[in-house]
Protein 1
Amino acid sequence: MGKILSILTRPVRNFNVEARAHAVISKEKPNAAPRHKVDQEQYRLMLKEYPDALQESLKKNEKLDKHLKNVFLTSYDPVVKDRNRQENINLEKPLPLDKSATVPFEYGFYEPKRIPLGRITLRKVMRFISEHHVDSKANNATKIAEDYLLPEKTVENILKYFKMYEIYVPTERKVKATFAGPVVPRKQISSDGQKLLGTFAKNKKDML
């Protein structure tokens, strides 16, 4: 029943709703909400005992207004540095100024610019392993140790235990699959197993 009444009264409630909304918004002083019965009684008693209190509260107090103008606020909070302001930069220890996203390294980690004697980067290791793979006689361990200033024993171990991946690309796209040997049927395996079990049982009877 309530839903039917709501549907029937909806056109009446929505009639000229925009104009009524503008009229309420354009009011300089909105209508106050109705007071509670207890508050209303206290308000009535206050007006009865202090009739001039309402008029005094609506007037501007010059003395209080003067005191308010003389009030100042002094803050002792620490000054926050402006991040956008240019600061003195120590040239001996410069801070990174590039805030953009870093490009990932080729080998997953940063490659140092200065390499101490007897050390080598992964890039150069992969280079001389490839050169040794192409021509092992011309690029032997002794030659590589002289070129890269490394101990010859270390180079020999690297060439022995580390290899480069090879990619094999078949020339023919359609190649028939070949198998290592014929598939052994399950029946033959079962018969062989029965023969072994029979031989084991016969030997066991002879031992008894």
Note: Residues 183-193 have pLDDT under 50 and may be disordered.
Protein 2
Amino acid sequence: MMFILFTSVLFVLIHQGQCSMHATANLQLHTTATSIGTLTFSQQDANSPVQITGTLRSLNISANH
């Protein structure tokens, strides 16, 4: 029984280390609750670099950001 438990825990730890990870951030202006975009953070595994992609909307081209 202990061997099965140990093997199961080991499998879960190995599997978690090889899974891709994703996170999303919704961007809002400081003074409003209006969403102006989304950033997505992706990583293939714990040893891979993080890739950041996103979109921005409704920004005034002549304003400082």
Note: The chain has a mean pLDDT of 76.
